[in-house]
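One record is kept unedited as follows:
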Amino acid sequence: QVQLVESGGGLVQAGGSLRLSCAASGSIFSINAMGWYRQAPGKQRELVAVITNGGITNSADSAKGRFTISRDNAKNTVYLQMNSLKPEDTAVYYCAAWTGPNGYWGQGTQVTVSS
């Protein structure tokens, strides 16, 4: 089992920045990759960015050039640095971790971008 706890969400004006954190605990040795998803009201959950144990990253087109995913293996923590935020980035952001066939989710953190 893996437990994920997100933090860092909040209210920010358009053009501002936020950094989300996701701390993993439990069977962290079995984690292959971690990432961030988001879900806006009335929309499906969508991938924002993912990072593997080897540091390979991939991001959604909407995040490229503005969001950066990184990880601190010593702290078992993944970060999502979000810059140049737009109102359409408003959503609940979820941390995810994968251990082979299993996936785990955090409880989510609200990000609200005002215009």
